[in-house]
## 1
Amino acid sequence: MEIGPLIGRVDKENLVMSGEMQTVLDAILSEKARAEDYASLPTPKTMRAVTTHKDEVKKFEGLASSEKDPRRSLHVDEVPIPEPGPNEALVAVMASSINFNTVWTSIFEPLPTFQFLERHAKRSPWDKRHDLPYHIIGSDGSGVILRTGPGVTLFKPGDEVTIHCNYVDLQSPEGHDDSMLDPDQRIWGFETNFGGLAEITLVRANQLMPKPPHLTWEEAASMPLVNSTAYRMLVSHNAVQIKQGDIVLIWGAVGGLGGFALQYVLNAGAFPICVVSSEERAKLCRTVGARWVIDRKAEGYRFWNPDGTQNLADVRRFGKRIRELTDGEDPDVVYEHPGRETFAASVFVARPGGKIVTCASTTGYMHEYDNRYLWMNKKRIIGSHFANYREAWEANRLVCKRAIHPLLSEAYPLEQTGEAAYRVHRNMAFGKIGVLCLAPREGLGVRDPEGRQRHIGQINLYRNAAKGEFRLVKTQP
Ligand code: NDP
């Protein structure tokens, strides 16, 4: 069960894959290998993985968040591969993606993630494996199961899967109505080690879901985290459960969370109000089907004065703008994640009895808002965090049924993960950025080319938008 130390840094000169890893990749690329074939493959002993280092957590001390550069703290190392324990699996990762938690981990904010690993390690001898001087990060993945530990029944070696990040084994009674309430619930690759930005990852079997057959590895890998989060926030009974006709204000409507929210709102027959920060992004929202779009930069909203007091005039101006678009109606639901900068405005603009559903605080977690607007108008704030297995499975099922589509706009090789995370940190990309782990190039892994072709406009929408092309041919699933 002991995991050895970091074996070495990977640089451009020693990018060569080990023979055993190449054999695994050849089996996947052949598309013919079966469970028995995978069982007879030797498990590689080491792999390339994206890591942060425990001895670097003070690297950015004294710098503002925006100046902390993931390219300086994310490394690609050669590391040992753990063996799967009970109810665990090793997955050969073809692709992963950048999430905002990749950014948080790389800039050691709000806390260095090594604290999470140390806490997790205290739970059991198996969990002790996670406490290492390096953290293999990444909370999304697609790939092929290589090994399963004792007790795994639903999946077997050779299965093509996507991986969601709810890491929980449900030994506490609290989690049995909703596993996100389990006191030992963690986010894989953020609060646990052996995440998805690696050639092989260690997961619990209840993180596995079937890979959507019409998508490439990188498209499939770019979805589980944000798609499942958006599903819980808007569709699940555990949060808002939007309905036909609801007006939903979506902050960051072409970001990761926002891009999926926009699809769920439109699919539900509800009305999105999209907030974005450029004309291109506004155009993308309209291409997807939104009628009401606010360009927050062009309209110059400043909800806070330089002295930290609220600029109520701009909050009111924002509310007025919403009413202009909607013929006088206020949002039934506000989909919140920017946090400190927008939260007071979100509370203000929600209709009486409306809901503000929040899962994050990108611009700061100490929120200030005028509570009179909340209590006098009987509004509700609902906290939400990732998704339980059922919710993640339903979100993945909608992708398999081609009712929800990827937001992938770019993909980078594993060794350029720092650059990819930098782009997300600086809000430079549309939708999602993928990372190729074992996949030698983009475009592989499609098992249903016909289904893909029927939706190719929707699948390539964000990629095309990143190139300045805004066209959408919509087809029914
Ligand atoms: P992205 O970077 O993909 O998108 C965020 C969007 O927010 C941007 O596209 C931007 O849109 C908008 N935004 C940024 N700053 C501001 C601002 N000051 N005011 C208004 N809008 C702003 O990130 P994600 O969507 O993946 O994640 C967003 C947050 O949610 C992160 O903090 C992340 O950690 C968290 N998160 C939490 C989850 C959970 O389970 N609790 C799950 C997933 C994410 P534009 O500039 O166009 O307005």
## 2
Amino acid sequence: MNPENSADQGKSEGKSGSIELVAPLSGPVVPLAAVPDPVFSEGMFGDGIGIDPLAGKLLSPCDGTVMHLARTGHAVTLETAEGAQVLVHIGIDTVELNGKGFSPKVEQGAKVRRGDLLIDFDLDVVACEAPSLVSVIAVANSDAFEVIQRAGAGRVEAGQTPLLVLRARDGAAQTVGAAGSANLVMDEVRRSVTLTHAGGLHARPAARAREAVRGIEARVEVRFGERKAAIESVVGLLALGAGEGATIELVGMGREAQKAVDAVANELLREAPGEAHEAPARALSPAPAAAPVTAATAPAATNAASGTLTGVCAAPGVAVGKLVRWDDAEIAPAELASGPSAAESRLLDKAVAAVDAELDTSVRAASQRGAIGEAGIFQMHRVLLEDPTLIDAARDLISLGKSAGFAWRESIRAQIAVLGKVDDPLLAERAADLRDLEKRVLRALALTSGAANTPAARQLPDEAVLAADEFTPSDLATLDRKRVTALVMARGGATSHAAIIARQAGIPAIVALGDSLHKIAEGTEVVVDAGAGRLVHAPSAQDIERARAEKQRLAGVREANRLTSQQAAATRDGHAIEVAANIATLDDARTAVENGADAVGLLRTELMFIHRQAAPTIEEHRQSYQAIAQALQGRPAIIRTLDVGADKEVDYLTLPPEPNPALGLRGIRLAQVRPDLLDDQLRGLLAVEPLSAIRILLPMVTDAGELIRLRERIDLFAKEAGRTGRVEVGVMIEVPSAALLADQLARHADFLSVGTNDLTQYTLAMDRCQPDLAAQADGLHPAVLRLIAVAVEGASKHGKWVGVCGALAGDPLAVPLLVGLGITELSVDPVSVPSIKARVRNLNYTQCRERVFDLLALESAQAVRAASRAHWPLD
Ligand code: PEP
Ligand code: MG
């Protein structure tokens, strides 16, 4: 032994005031700094020493109590009578072996003597499967105990060679009481139970059984075949895989063992109402929704058996790539903790408590709505959240220097892997629940530690097919578009803003794929045929080959269209149609020009300022629009005033909750509560040079009175600013009243622009973001088309032109109808400009006019689509 402190020289080992640890393993000594894991070598876990073991037996280095035995059997922490906590950790990263090769010979709480066998391990297995066999003996509470002597280089013998001498830092060794010894005198009680529940030992009976022993002084273990699990661990109980009819054994230990075993048995034998057929739980999200409708009129359906999910096209195109869960990718916790383990542990506690509170609120809300099933699922999540298997495994990792987020994620994933080994579809659903919890806690951790969303946390593979419940516009604003080849969503609608952004970016996207999307494993190779709304998640080599060929063909067509995109578009019989672009950023404006847009038909200014924490100032408005006007090089820009509310949220504005946001303070109505926001924007717009570069578009106008008042305000601001030119002002036709009163609006407006996304929503009374209605909320519905016809007719009475800036303008099947109805401007996503121009050039205007009114007489959107396809086939 090498003395570390001259003052200690001469002290004999084991003398009062010092604690001697003998080698727990046989083999050469490795200095702590040379242990191949920074967690140990940098002393993050505490002072200590390494041994490269040559035999698979871990003996106790001292007398003490087993404070903690890793669930995976690879590490043990002992507490000496003086209070020193000694960790012995076998190998490096051995938690990953998940117990393989380790056979603990003691239980947590056991009293052990120096030299007792604690863990038997298979040296070969660990050597082959772990990065290193080097094991560590460290003082976990190094703040209270210091190492005063340690063995020098050379071989040590387990149970014999002195290894370390410790001393309490304040000189006064603590004495721990006999805590934990209460249960040491253990009665053991066994009882067999045959499970009669449909589904066997599933989550709810498991959770109830666990509840039944709360407060009883005993431990209960459930055994099934070779497997066993503590009653406290619902996850462990599920992993037993004990199905209906299985006979399990309950083993109780402790003073009240009999009482505990009986309580569990009674619970398991009790048939709780509604549990006879425990339904496979949905993957959970805060706002669960049913799977997409499967009616013939709505294509959204799930066909997991054939390896295909069906949803609704949000942006056309074909892609092949690897599935990446965006919700997970959002937060990639650093592996190593930045601070001490204790602080990291507290962070985890805080996050778990926050999620628990969140779940509690969800349980209450669901119960109040009478959604008992939903409340039960959230309640079950609360039970899982406090599962000792999960928490202990996370704490093990934290104690090894891992960050709380990393530890939590690994712990959850280890359990998902365990559940994955049990052949039971219900357990696959539980895995979805665990994934949901993983996400929630990581988010809570990111919020409390401020570690969310760093750019480094979003590293994506090439050809990433991003999957999420639903992307928000802000998710998409930060995407690495070079790597993302497609977007797939469980929910969402084809006209949601996420869909609009995907189209603008030219990224194929599917919405409303349903909860089955969450079951596809991360990294799975998938084929996305967005046009057909199909996600193939078990593609054959042929599927992949075909998709790649189709992708290439589409690229060829795109290239041909691009070559003529800078020329104006007119029908074969010479009727000019302006093809403009919908944009949200300066970059989009450049893309619009590159793609041959004749103008900007819609600048969604609310998206331009979406990430800001404060509303833009007048000058910021001016600068933004001026930059866009310049980028457009003389092409005019229709700039829509802020359209915030409903599906469009911005960071800087928290609107009071409304029962029906889509029918609330949206568009120009926002000015009723925040007139300053609109005034600042109008002033900024009126400062753009030259004024003729821009036109102002007002969203959500319902009648002429609103338009007149706003026109007066615009004129007043223009006068104040000394502007002499007259700025053109148009209105969105996106609510039925505006379409019906178009003749009145057109008297005061310079132009009309039909917002088919909202016009469809409000005409058909179908939420544009409701996935179950995504397929039915179709702008080619005859009712929507008739309103467009009324609007065009009303405008023509005053010689005003009408454009369409909703998604319908970019739908190749809608283009002939809109042209036939007299629409003269189609404003589409920048990347769609070339193909829409190509489509216009293939049409005959006279023929479109002749046919369109026949199509308006049809009875459904499907019929209109079919007829359009028949008259004007697609490429
Ligand atoms: C529309 O409603 O069709 C439209 C263009 O506006 P937004 O999609 O931004 O609501
Ligand atoms: Mg709208």
